[in-house]
Amino acid sequence: MGSTVLVTGGAGYIGSHACKVLARNGYTPVTYDNLSTGWSAAVKFGPFEQGDLLDRERLDDVFARYQPQAVMHFAALSQVGESMRQPGMYWHNNVCGSLNLIEAAVAAGCLDFVFSSTCATYGDQDNVLLDESCDQRPINAYAASKRAIEDILDNFGEAYGLRSVIFRYFNVAGADPEGEVGEFHQPETHLIPLILDAIDGRRAALTIYGEDYDTPDGTCIRDYVHVLDLVEAHLLGLRWLEDGKGSRVFNLGTGKGFSVREVLDRSRAVTNRDIPVIAGQRRAGDATRLVSGSARAEQELGWTPGRSTLDEMIRDAWNWHQHGGYDL
Ligand code: UDP
Question: Whose Cα sits closest to atom 14 in ligand 1?
């Protein structure tokens, strides 16, 4: 048996893909998940421990039994709109929960930590490529909660020698091309799965959240990255820590931005289907443009986001949408 990695949120979209890649590379991924938004059917590649981040006793027990070499911390509430309506829930679950996890890891002597942060921590900084040195100015409670966890990791690094690789994700999309795991949120809030729902009639139409932004076609611009490329970066991050290279922040994006309308156009082309669209209001908390300055991960980690074309992400998501799914 290879070494063990504790994967919080391993029953969720990104965490389940990470478990698959970890298992394939000789690690034992132990999923820790409260199933508030994840699925036990997505835990296919290692042991499952159902538990909450706020339950310190349960965490201590899991650390003692598995003695993981590292933590990959995916578990979080992650919807921008919801975070604006219920900020307390985000601070409680994401920040208090992560603090609890970080304290448990340090107490157990597990000092290598890979953390899922977000490009949303940069906030609205028009017309610049966002690299890791940009100021962080969160404009929604989700991003503020992630930013706070970055600070906790930094402080615990100083105080206890915790080593963290912090990944600031841009927009994650696509699915495992082998169809074992994929994106499945209830309710769904993300653009590409919602477009696919509108294509196959699971939803009446796709609502565009605002067409009056300061962008060429008026819709928001995002940098989309394939979930498999993203989890490959996590493997590289783990090796970075194993090699003793210490704490570092990396953006995970491609450096190319696409508007909501461009994503719709590619979705029509890839699926060869029509998409009913409704023009809607702006969604609170949305930044105009989030595009990664992605050189650092490529140069220092040797990361190549080779699957992250819109067409490949849409194709893999469409394949999962049509043929995948979990037996719940
Ligand atoms: N979006 C949209 N309609 C939807 C869902 C999303 O127009 O039904 C837009 C949203 O405003 C943002 C982009 O699509 O500009 C990506 O949103 P998503 O929720 O997928 O990711 P986020 O950028 O919030 O992490």
Answer: 191
Whose tokens are 């769904």? That residue is: 188
* 62 within 8 A of 6, measured Cβ to Cβ: yes
Query: Which domains, ranges and CATH numbers included, belong to the chain?
Result: 4-174+223-252 (3.40.50.720)
- Whole-angstrom distance, CA of residue 8 vs CA of residue 221: 30
Please name the residue that has the structure tokens 């998940």. Answer: 33
| Helix/strand/coil percent split, the chain, to 5 | 40, 20, 40
pLDDT for residue 1 is more than 50: no
Active site residues: 142
Query: Residues lining ligand 1, judged by CB closer than 6 Å?
Result: 80, 171, 189-191, 194, 206-209, 220, 222, 260, 283, 286
Atom of ligand 1 nearest to the CA of 286: 11
Record the pTM: 0.97
Tens digit of each residue's pLDDT (9 = 90 or more) over 83-106: 999 999 999 999 999 999 999 999
Match 């194993």 to its residue by tokens. 242
How far is it, in rounded angstroms, from Cα 191 to Cα 273? Answer: 16
